[in-house]
Amino acid sequence: MLYPAATGLVLAPLAARAWVRLAAGPMGLRRRAGRGSHVEGDDVWVTIEASPSSRIPLPSLEIRERVARIGARRTPLRRDGGFYRGTYVLERVPRGRYTVAEATAAVEDPFGLARSEVELAVGGALVVYPRLVALSGLFSESGAHAQDGRRLLLRRPSGFDLHSVREYVEGESLRKVHWASTARRGRLMVKELEDSPRDEIAVVLDADGTGVVGESFDVAVRAAGSILHTHAARGRRAVLAVNGSPPVNVSVASLEGDWLAALEALAAAEPVAAIPVVELLAREGGPAARSLELVVVTARLTGALARKLAQRAQASHGVSLVWIDSASFAGRPTPVEPELLRLQAAGIPVAVVRRGDDLRAALGGTQAGWRAHG
User: Fold this and answer.
1) Confidence at residue 59, expressed as pLDDT on a 0 to 100 scale
2) In the chain, what percentage of residues exceed pLDDT 90?
3) 23: part of which helix (H) or strand (E)?
4) d(CA 328, CA 354)
5) For the chain, does the N or the C end have fewer beta carbons within 10 angstroms?
6) What separation in angstroms does the CA of 157 have from each of 194, 204, 232, 238, 365?
């Protein structure tokens, strides 16, 4: 009487291994993260759909993933027709771009006697956008900083840029001489200029991580994005510049396709600066140099940056600053910032954003509290 039972115990593992081996094989994997776009702080429902190449039903299927910034996840899938589906929820997802670094399908028999793992192709990303605020006006447009009632969008956003250099022709004005090339080549060289469009607004997001405390950089991203959105909604040519690693420049002329590219850049922004923001501003031909107006969003106001902004203001170029008070994100009082007084003396509008502030009020110029321009 024991022989049938013993035989079953011997054959069961063999049958389990055969079932798993025949059922497990290459399979396609598709992920869907809800519908529409995702904004930081939202819950995101992720559906996983696997399509095995084998026609033999899988005894069980579990997808194991490692998602950047989220970590490892295990999702059991159930058969649904010719597919296997499973769902999980990411709660209150922060802003960012989340890629799947690893994905494995684990096939196992119901009794745990045999298991097989199949490596799956990874691809795609979950993009979670910053939570922007709608602004009817900007702090830089009020009072003495309203350009005496004139709208800068009436100014023609164009100018001449250095295209190339060539040898000097007798009779030409010496004002066209490119002295750096002349010194390098040992003969007179003149500038070839071409008329090119300029951006009206440059919104510069400082990705310097040394001034970041808690979610202060996320607040900076929201501020930069909200200001950029305001100008794009008005039909003004703008550019988003981030001194990240690598640096990012995205031109925006409307709230159509180019705006989506800017949103994705803001979603992916990390506080890892490739160069100091003051170097980005000083670059000849860079987005700041080519713009009629400049807005800098930073948590680290250095003396060099304050001097650069003051020089731009003295040259009658529009400039404003959004200063993120990172100390407030650590629960500390706002430190005395002498550089803010330097900007005040230069007539530069400054919006100060502290932890817990209403961003709409701070950037719209209606928030009660100290601002460098009044």
Assistant:
1) 74
2) 45
3) helix 2-23
4) 6
5) N
6) 14, 18, 15, 10, 26
- Residue type, position 173, single letter: S
* Other residues' Cβ atoms within 10 Å of the Cβ of residue 251: 15
For residue 316, count other CB atoms closer than 10 A to its CB.
Answer: 6
Span 10-21, pLDDT tens digits: 444 555 455 556
Among the ranges given (143-152, 183-192, 278-287, 305-314), the one the predictor scored with the smallest mean pLDDT:
143-152
Rounded distance, CA 307 to CA 302, Å?
9
For residue 302, pLDDT beyond 80:
yes
- Contact of 340 with 350, CB cutoff 8 Å: yes
**CA 42 from centroid of its chain's CA atoms:** 17
pLDDT at 21: 60
- Outline which parts of the chain fall under CATH 2.60.40.10: 25-129
- Name residue 28's beta-bridge partners: 51
Q: Which residues of the chain does CATH 3.40.50.410 include?
A: 139-156+199-364
Residue 274 near residue 247, CB atoms below 8 Å: yes
Roughly what angle, to the nearest 10 degrees, separates helices 216-233 and 257-268?
170
Give the pLDDT of residue 260: 94
Q: Which two structure tokens, joined as six digits, stand for 331?
A: 């629960």
- Whether residue 87 contacts residue 37, with contact meaning beta carbons closer than 8 Å, is answered with no
Match 């194991």 to its residue by tokens. 64
- Residue-level pLDDT at 358: 95
DSSP letter for each residue of 94-109? PSEEEEEEEEEEEEE-
> With respect to CATH, is domain 139-156+199-364 assigned 3.90.650.10?
no
- The domain covering 25-129 belongs, at the CATH homologous superfamily level, to Immunoglobulins (2.60.40.10)
Summarize the confidence of residues 260-265 as an average pLDDT.
96
The distance in angstroms from the start CA to the end CA of the chain is 97
Is residue 372 within 8 A of residue 336, CB to CB? The reply is no
Question: Would you state the structure tokens that stand for residue 333, as one six-digit string?
Answer: 């009082």
- Give the per-residue pLDDT at 124: 80
pLDDT of residue 68: 87
Find the largest Cα–Cα distance for the chain: 116
Tell me the β-bridge partners of 89.
45
CA 11/CA 74 separation, integer angstroms: 30
